[in-house]
Amino acid sequence: MANPKRSWLDGPQIPGELDDPYAPGRWPGEKIGLPESGPGSMASVGRRAGAVAIDWIICWLLAGAFVSYTDVLGSTPTVTLIFWMILGIVTGWLFARTPGHMVLSMGIARTDVGGARVGLWRAVVRTVLTSLILPAAMVDSDGRGLHDRATGTAVIRG
To answer: Which residues, in sequence order, are CB contacts of 100 under 8 Å at separation 6+?
Structure first.
């Protein structure tokens, strides 16, 4: 017998029941068509955090050098954030990966169209939302942050 339509009288649906669109997949990225492991699989949260740290250190060093010559953009923390956002937007748009992603063998992929470029607007929105920290820290059952869900992207291995 097919699963009948649920009403509010049935109470909340328990995750994992039949036809539950919010039930976790068997592995991160399964629901968006990514393989379980290897190239093209979903990158772990720890690996993505490591990439952000690498990018931040690069921008912090550049900001320290920049601020030693001028304070036109503010102090080192402000310039670091500005450089980090520029780095994320430009490299995400042009190369679909930041230097931190490259060091840790990751990249940004669109989930709606396989093989299509990330594009400028996705790179801008992803970077701005990541800078707010909370959207990147809140992940779904596939391990994607809210910034990736909003832009139809995922950070994959390879």
So the answer is: 50, 51, 52, 53, 54, 55, 58
pLDDT tens digits along 114-125: 778 899 999 999
Give this prediction's pTM. 0.81
Q: Hey, what are 95's tokens? A: 């190369």
The closest of 147, 104, 107 to 129, measured between CA atoms, is 147
d(CA 110, CA 87): 19
Q: Which residue has the tokens 């470029």?
A: 117
Is 5 buried (19+), middle (13-18) or exposed (0-12) by CB count in 10 A? exposed
Measured distance CA(112)–CA(114) in Å, rounded: 7
